[in-house]
């Protein structure tokens, strides 16, 4: 029984940060129709930015709980700086062109950003230990778990509900949904489609950076961390259905639980278990579990 509880908690913790990152990926696809290969790089920038901000806050001898604010500010800063440069300076020139060209463009951006992070932060790993100890330990049965993991689950739920509410219960969200369904009709009704693209892309980058920032205390932040994240994020959105918030949540839970079961029962099959689940889902639901919009073929 104790092992089952451990598997469930580990799977839920893993799914929580993965959902935040995948939510940004599926939002960008839903609005801009872009399969953003560089999404993992924004996650890495969030992790590196959080490591830098937390270290600076610690050097200034601020209260330890402010390290959480530092990580949030890092994600906001990454989105505020990188989003305009990427969307206005690069992607907007490729709207309406062949989808393969967009994939190649974001892949090139991914390679550039990988080298850029090495130039800025070097090749040595960074460790963000301060926030991880803020929530103490939680005892469940005979096992003790880190409280930070449960905070991360709460953050994922909060982010998911906030994005859902923003899209479905606000005027701005209705405008975004209109652009998703038909940019041409939305533009004819006076909607500034270019601005909607910019805002949606900024939120997508923020979510990726937020996932990276709040995952940084749990991992070693080092070059290459973005590669595994983008693969897992694509697995999540493919399982759940491109462009679906509900699909991203269910997909993240499936991937998280599959990985947790594999890690605790057959560690060598960790990645195999994820790809196996994805293959089984696509066999019966090629469009994903919660596909809402027709994915463009590449």
From TrEMBL:
Classification via Pfam families: BPD_transp_2
Q: Where in the cell is it found?
A: Cell membrane
Please give the chief subcellular localization of this protein. Answer: membrane
- UniProt keyword list: Amino-acid transport, Cell membrane, Membrane, Transmembrane, Transmembrane helix, Transport
MF (Gene Ontology): transmembrane transporter activity
Among the entry's GO cellular component annotations, what is one? plasma membrane
Q: In the UniProt record, does the keyword Endoplasmic reticulum occur?
A: no
Task: State if Transport is listed as a keyword.
Answer: yes
Write out the GO biological process terms.
amino acid transport
Membrane topology field: Multi-pass membrane protein
Its domain of life reads: Bacteria
Name the PANTHER family for this protein: ABC TRANSPORTER ATP-BINDING PROTEIN, BRANCHED-CHAIN AMINO ACID TRANSPORT SYSTEM PERMEASE PROTEIN LIVH
Protein name according to UniProt: Branched-chain amino acid ABC transporter permease
What species does this protein belong to? Pseudaquabacterium pictum
- Taxonomic lineage from the root: Bacteria, Pseudomonadati, Pseudomonadota, Betaproteobacteria, Burkholderiales
């Amino acid at each position: 029984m104790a092992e089952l509880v451990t598997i469930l908690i580990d799977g839920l913790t893993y799914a929580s940060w993965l959902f935040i990152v995948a939510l940004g990926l599926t939002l960008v696809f839903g609005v801009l129709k872009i399969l953003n290969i560089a999404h993992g790089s924004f996650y890495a920038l969030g992790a590196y930015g959080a490591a830098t901000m937390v270290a600076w806050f610690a050097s200034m001898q601020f209260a330890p709980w402010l390290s959480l604010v530092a990580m949030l500010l890092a994600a906001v800063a990454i989105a505020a700086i990188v989003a305009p440069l990427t969307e206005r300076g690069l992607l907007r020139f490729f709207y309406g062109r062949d989808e393969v060209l967009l994939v190649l463009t974001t892949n090139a951006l991914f390679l550039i950003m990988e080298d850029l992070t090495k130039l800025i932060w070097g090749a040595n790993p960074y460790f963000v230990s301060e926030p991880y100890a803020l929530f103490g330990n939680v005892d469940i049965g005979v096992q003790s778990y880190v409280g930070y993991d449960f905070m991360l689950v709460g953050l994922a739920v909060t982010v998911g509900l906030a994005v859902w509410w923003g899209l479905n219960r606000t005027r701005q969200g209705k405008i975004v949904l209109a652009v998703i369904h038909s940019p041409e009709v939305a533009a004819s009704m006076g909607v500034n489609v270019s601005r909607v693209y910019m805002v949606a892309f900024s939120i997508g980058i923020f979510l990726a950076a937020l996932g990276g920032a709040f995952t940084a205390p749990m991992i070693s932040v080092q070059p290459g961390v973005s590669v595994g994240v983008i693969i897992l994020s694509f697995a999540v959105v493919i399982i759940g259905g491109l462009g679906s918030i509900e699909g991203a949540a269910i997909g993240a839970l499936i991937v998280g639980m599959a990985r947790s079961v594999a890690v605790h029962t057959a560690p060598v099959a960790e990645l195999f278990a994820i790809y196996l689940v994805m293959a089984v889902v696509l066999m019966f639901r090629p469009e994903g579990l919660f596909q809402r919009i027709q994915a463009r073929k590449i």
